[in-house]
Amino acid sequence: MATTHDAATSTNPLGDELRGGRTAKPCALVIFGATGDLTKRKLVPSLMGLAKDGLLPSGFAVTGFARRDWSDQKFRAELAEGVAQFGRSDTEAAFAAMADAFTFHQSDFGDAAGYESLKQKLAQIDRQHGTAGNRLFYLATPPSAYSTILERLAAHGLSREENGRFARIIVEKPFGRDLATAVALNDQVRQGFHERQVFRIDHYLGKETVQNILALRFANGIFEPLWNEKFVDHVQITVAESIGVGSRGGYFEESGIIRDMIQNHLMQVLTLVAMEPPATLSADGVRDEKVKVLKAIRSFAPADVDRCTVRAQYTRGSFGGEDVKGYREEEGVPANSTTETFAAARLHVENWRWAGTPFYLRSGKRLPRRVTEVAIQFKQPPHLLFQGGRPLQPNVLLLRIQPDEGVALRFGAKVPGPDVRIRDVRMDFRYGAAFGGETADAYERLLLDAMLGDGTLFARRDEVEEAWRIVDSIVAGWQQSKHRPAEYVAGTWGPDAADKLLSGGRQWRKP
Ligand code: BG6
C-alpha cells in the first residue's frame, strides 16, 4: 500500500492561507551530503515545519545520499534528533508520522553504480510513496563535490525531464569563489539542467522580512515616491553577527566575510531595496529588475578600493564579561591569516533613481549583537524652521530584518509644553505583535518554492555572476594594495576606518 503524506490531514487551520492556493506536486527529494550539518539543522526540521502546516505534497519522500556507512535507522535517528533540537514546536510528531519516508543511500559521489542503484531506489520510492517520478536534488556537500555530482546526474539521465515529470536541482552557496569559478560551475550545471530547473539558494531570500521589502515598497503608495536620490540621503545595510567563526575556521579562512556574506546575502538585500518595480511578480519579472541593479554598480578600479572599502579582523575581546578568542587564534586559522572577518563598502547604483546616493554595506563577525537591518536615511528638510535644542536627526525608515522583525520610522515631534522643542520619536511596526505565532524558517519557504518550481526567491545565473564581478574587483584591489586588514576588538562595531567611509556628517548606526 502506498504510504503517502496527505496535506489535507494537516491540523493547521492556516494551511490553505499559507499555501496561497499553491500545491506542490508529489516528489522525491535526494539530499547529497545528507550526513552533514545542514540536513540535520535546517533541511529536515524545515521539511517537518512544512509537514506540520500541511504544505508538503501528498506523495513525498527523502533519500540521503552520502559516503558514510549509515543504515536507514541510523539516518532517521540522526534526523529525529535534529528535528527535536532545531525544529519548530510540534514537528517531532510530524517526523515520527512519516519517518519511513526517509531512507539512506550509501555511495561515493563519483561512483557510477551508486547512481544506477539510486535510480532503482527512486523507482521503488515512487511505488511506495506515490512520488510520481518527480525529483528534487539538493547539493548540500562541500562545493568541491558539486562538479562530480552534476556530471553523474546528467550522465545517468537523472536530470532529464520526461512525460511531464520534473527534475530540479537546488545548489547551496558558495556558488563559486570568484567570477571565473562561478561561470565554470554555471556552465557545468547547464550541461545537465536548464536554468528553469536550477534553484541557487540564498537563504536570506527566504526570510519573511526580506520578502517584505518588496511588499513594503510595492504594496503601498506612500514609500515609493520618496524612494530615490531626491529624498534619500543614503542607505545603510548591516548584517552583524555576534558569533565568531567557531569550528568553521578552515572554511572561513578561504572565503572571508566578503565571499561568505557580502557576495550573496548583502547583495541580494541591496537589489531588493534598489530595484525598479517589476512588471509582474513572476520569477523572471523580479530577477530581471534585480540584475539591473547589479549591472548599474561599476566594478571598482584597484585605486578606489582603499577609498571605498574597509576590511578588518577581530582580535581577542570580551562578550558579556567572557573572554573570546581573536580570529587568528581560532581553530583552523593560521596565526598570520589576512582573511577579513569584517568588511564595509560604499557603493553607487548608477542609474536615474539612485545617482549620487551612496549605499553603505557592512558585515562582520564578533560585532556586539546579531542584527540585520536596512536603514533608509532621508535628506533633511530644505529649510530648518525649528532651531535651538538638540540638532534634529534625519528621518530614517528602518527595516529590521532580524531579530525583532519589523519596520520603524524615526521622525521629529514637538515635546509637549509651552516651548517649541522637537525631539526624535519612532513609529514602530512589529511582526510578532501584528501577526503573532512562530515564523517559519527561511528554508521552509525555499524548499516549498523549489517543489513548486517557483524560482523568484532564488538567484539566477546572471545575478550570481554580476555579484561576483563586483566582489572580484574589491578582492583584486585588496590583493594589490597588500595592506593587512585593520583590527577591531571582538565585541565592538568594527574598526575606526569604517567610520571614515561615511562622509558629510553621516554615521553608521549602532543598533
Ligand atoms: C551563512 C554564512 O550563509 O549565513 C554564515 O555562511 C552566517 O557564516 C549565516 O553565520 C548567517 O545566517 P543568519 O540566517 O543566521 O543571519
Descriptive report:
It is built from 15 helices and 17 strands. The chain is α/β, with parallel strands linked by helices. The chain folds into 2 domains: 195 residues, Rossmann fold; 276 residues, Dihydrodipicolinate Reductase, domain 2 (2-Layer Sandwich), CATH 3.30.360. The strands form 3 sheets. A 9-stranded mixed β-sheet has the order 16-15-14-13-7-12-11-8-17. A 6-stranded parallel β-sheet has the order 3-2-1-4-5-6, with helices on both faces. Strands 9-10 form a two-stranded antiparallel ribbon. Helix 2 packs across helix 3, helix 2 packs across helix 13 and helix 7 runs antiparallel to helix 14. The chain is globular. The N and C termini lie far apart (56 Å). The chain binds 6-O-phosphono-beta-D-glucopyranose. The site of 6-O-phosphono-beta-D-glucopyranose has 2 residues, from loops.
As laid out across the biggest beta sheet, the strand order is 16-15-14-13-7-12-11-8-17
Total E-strand runs: 17
| Bound molecule types | 6-O-phosphono-beta-D-glucopyranose
**How many domains in all?**
2
Structural class: alpha/beta
Q: From the alpha-carbon coordinates, what is the Rg to the nearest angstrom?
A: 24 Å
Kindly report the CATH topology of the largest domain.
Dihydrodipicolinate Reductase, domain 2
For the biggest sheet, the summary is:
9 strands, mixed
Mean of residue pLDDT? 92
Give the CATH class of the largest domain. Answer: Alpha Beta
Which residue ranges are poorly predicted, with pLDDT under 50 across at least 5 consecutive positions?
1-19
N-to-C terminal Cα separation, in Å?
56 Å
| CATH superfamily label of the largest domain | Dihydrodipicolinate Reductase, domain 2
Strand content: 15-25%
Helix percentage range:
25-40%
Total count of helical runs of at least 4 residues: 15
Reported CATH architecture of the largest domain: 2-Layer Sandwich
Overall 3D shape: globular
